[in-house]
Structure of Sphingomyelin synthase-like domain-containing protein:
Amino acid sequence: MSKPKPERSMPPPRPAACRRSLAVGGLGLAAAAYVGVDHLSHMSPSLHGWLQPALWATLALATAARAPFYRRWDAEIRAAPKFLAAMIFMLAALLCEAVSVRFVSAVLGLQWHRSTAPLPDTGQWLLLALNERLPQAVVGLLRARIINLHHYLMLFIMLGFSALFNCIKGPGLGIATRYMFTMAVGRFLRTITFLATILPSPRPWCAESRYRIPEHPHAWAQKYYAPYASDPRAIRRVILSDMPYAAVQDYTVDYRPEWGHMSFLIDILRPTAGDGPSWYHLLKKASGGCSDLMYSGHVFVAVLTAMAWTEAYGGWISVLIWFLVLHSAQREIRERHHYSVDCIVAIYVGILLWRMTGFICSTWDSDRARRLAKLDEIQNKLFRAAKDSDIDEIRGLLNEVELAGQAKKAFSRRIILSFAASMIIFTLLFVLLTFTLASDG
């Protein structure tokens, strides 16, 4: 009499199956509802006033209810140090960018911003020509403020938390680490790019309306730029001699506050008496700058969000997000926040950088490697079970393959629950800060 085989548990559902089942709903509908409800603030503020809190309460309750049943909190804990390191790296990149934005906006003085014409932009010409030829309904759709910077950030947060529902491959902090690291690298590259050559803003009135900066250029610009800015003979002479020769004019000395150890920033930021005593207070006013910043930071963030959705989730919602990226890019050009070249460069730089940082999700590769190793180990048993049509044996062997790809748990339940609660609270605080600080871009 043959010995009965021990029962084996059924393999857990695969994330891919979840994505297929949610192809017509779930996460995609939640993302579309978030953008649509937030857009009601322009169309029906009263309806938006009660729909938005209801939507956010629903999403928060669903997340909190699902969190205790999530099976990969141990993987999230292991990914947390890399995520924190990526966050620190991104904050450093943003600080460097803020200093540089103020520098390129202030170094040439307010008079330069008033007198320098914007560069010719054929993309702007094309959009103006289309406005004359397209139906007004289409033009109105192109002009509509459907989605902004904080929407893309929130869409990514929704994507990361969808790991709780097995909609994307966990850990969610793994893709969040890649997103933050890629954004930080892109911000550093952007800073280097717009520091290399100062371009006039497409909005010549920007500096005068937004900043308090000196009328005259900094001494560096007085010596190395101003004498050779427009005279062809002066430009030719400085090219031939490869040395500055013009004398610096006698301008008013810049205001120099007492910043202690940060006094080296005075020549870079060029503060005025009305900016207050703190260098940090001045940096908070850097905003988007008032010379053209190559490439567009808004479009870059939008592309990273679209790439993350396409790679991790896919489906119709990812296609819709890419259409929103293109809509955002043409709005940046249409409203003259950027030149066309800034948006075009931001799109391909975002795509290339995201492709280059795939190594950050190495835990997924290691999980896959362990599964393949286990599959190779049980290959003969699987063939025999298939030959004997032993469905229970096949399910048990496949379950062993699935479990082999999961890291062993090494954290107590108390640690896991504390980490889960802290992550949810941190994200809610991040959401509030995003709405407060990034709602205007």
Remarks:
- The chain has a mean pLDDT of 82.
- Residues 73-106 form the longest helix (34 residues).
